[in-house]
């Protein structure tokens, strides 16, 4: 027996009432999974950041360990060199001290000898002057004796034969006087030469004495240098002791750095393992999220009304309007098919974040605001409504997100979202999906560590049977 119409309606109503809670629960499940996916993504990013930071610290620790090892080696070499230097300086100081002492005694003796020579020369000079005076006196006597002999000869001649003997004596006296005067002249000459030589010796003796005094002063300076060298030996001893004291902590630091390096290696391995596990967990969570989205699509296509149904219907209607506008533009010759599907994205110079242009931007700027802007007033939860091409490029955004860029990249990122490519999972999926609609759930980063759970409903935009992209309608989760 065939069922009555009212019975069929009742059955459909019962099915709808049964599926409606399932749809709501599926929606809440999708939201929860999206939140979990976001948290896993945050943990994965944090783990990756920690892994990167750990690698940075490992690099720094390795550098410090290498520097410490190099310092240890340098200190070993410095310590050996200091010991060697100390030995050489000590030996040199001993030798130099002996040489300086010997030289000082020698110079002192030479100085005393030079002074004594000068004194002796002065005495000789005095004696020479006395001899010179005596020689002069003898010469004077000789001259007087010759005169006397001459007078005696004259008197002897007057006396005749009686004075013959006296004449002989007078002649002998004259000859003796002549010899004495000759000897006196020769003595004077020799004394003059001797005095000249003595004068030169006196000058040289004076110079030698002064040189001896200077040498003695220099010897005193050398003695002081020897004392300084001895003090330097003490300073080197102190330096060696200081290096030895520092050497032990440096070696200890080297061992500590090695231990730190081992700990950091283990920590890095742990972070890598955690990042790998989180990556797998994120992939599985994404798979579950995709299953949840497919399940929501199935429920919506079954005709069951959910809280998302009004947004899906609105997005479907607006996407159809955009398809018609694009098709009419091609039909009227406003734009060529190649230009509408242009994916030669040309960067806008100086933009930050980067904005790009294509040949269809003029068309989307002219026709899309009239379709997209009214959607913002549909529900207070609506965040934006904008069309993207199959690569996630958003040419014409809502007016409140389409301000001219300024000098602040952070402000630009929030207020200048047109002309940008959003090639994240949600953006690419919205642009490339050819399903009747796609309902995605994701976390939107509001800055400052604040996140808002969003739903993104996208419907394909088809132009003359060709997939151009999709219309995205994003709204917050109640």
UniProtKB/TrEMBL annotation:
Coiled coil: none
GO MF assignments: transmembrane signaling receptor activity
Annotated Gene Ontology cellular component terms: membrane
Keyword set includes DNA repair: no
Methyl-accepting transducer domain mapped to chain residues: 25-268
Keywords: Transducer
One GO term of the biological process aspect: signal transduction
Family membership noted in the UniProt record: Belongs to the methyl-accepting chemotaxis (MCP) protein family.
Name used for this protein in its record: Methyl-accepting chemotaxis protein
